[in-house]
Amino acid sequence: MKLKKIFPFALLSGLFLLISCGSTIPENAQAVQGFQKDKYLGKWYEIARLDFKYEEGLNNTTAHYSLNENGSIKVVNRGYDYEKEEWREANGKAKFVGEENIGMLKVSFFGPFYSGYNVIAIDEDYQYALVAGESLKYLWILSRETTIPEEIKNDYLKIAEEIGYKTSDLIWVEHNP
């Protein structure tokens, strides 16, 4: 009788652990070492992405990162849907998976459910970043401006391909005034 009462709780706890503790980075990717959170904060323009349902059809996409009072990172993603002629915005939070000097984070836009957010390449001035999700379905190229130098773009594409990303599927984001 007691086992019947405990089983549902144990099952839910196990599922929660599986969801929250799974791998947050693709197998062949490595998060940036020596990551500097304070330099990463601020506004980033999305240059390219592997499209997925929450950003489908959006252009002028940006991400803004700032600190919450509890030390987590506030995430505000924004993009313009030209078909519906409206801005869409998603607010979330990010936390480091381990040490704050490693660019491996997890981000949540839906309560207790987190997904991998891994800075796998960044220039020394924190102007350009390559970000991997938790699997080969998610990839972003970011810039502090609406464009990125061709050399950096090519370097990031090469890194992504070596990890196993299909870069020919990237959506190149338009930024219009």
Protein architecture, described:
It is a single chain. This protein has helices at 2-21, 37-40, 150-163; strands at residues 42-50, 58-67, 73-81, 86-96, 104-110, 113-122, 128-132, 139-143, 170-172. It is of the alpha+beta class and 177 residues long. The protein has one domain: Calycin beta-barrel core domain (Lipocalin, Beta Barrel). An eight-stranded antiparallel beta barrel has the order 1-2-3-4-5-6-7-8. The model is unreliable at 1-22 (pLDDT under 50).
What's a quick, concise take on this entry?
The chain is of the alpha+beta class and 177 residues long. It contains three helices and nine strands; from the N terminus they run H-H-E-E-E-E-E-E-E-E-H-E.
Q: Any key phrases for this structure?
A:
single chain, 177 residues, alpha+beta, Lipocalin, globular
Helix content: 10-25%
Task: Identify low-pLDDT runs.
Answer: 1-22
Distance between the termini: 65 Å
CATH topology: Lipocalin
Helix and strand run? HHEEEEEEEEHE
CATH classification, class level: Mainly Beta
* Coarse structural class: alpha+beta
* CATH level-two architecture: Beta Barrel
Mean pLDDT, nearest integer?
89
The largest beta-sheet arranges its strands as 1-2-3-4-5-6-7-8
Extended strand count: 9
Q: Please indicate the count of domains.
A: 1
What kind of sheet is the major sheet?
8 strands, antiparallel, barrel
Strand content: 35-45%
**Tell me, what's the shape?**
globular
CATH superfamily: Calycin beta-barrel core domain
Radius of gyration: 18 Å
- Separate helix tally: 3
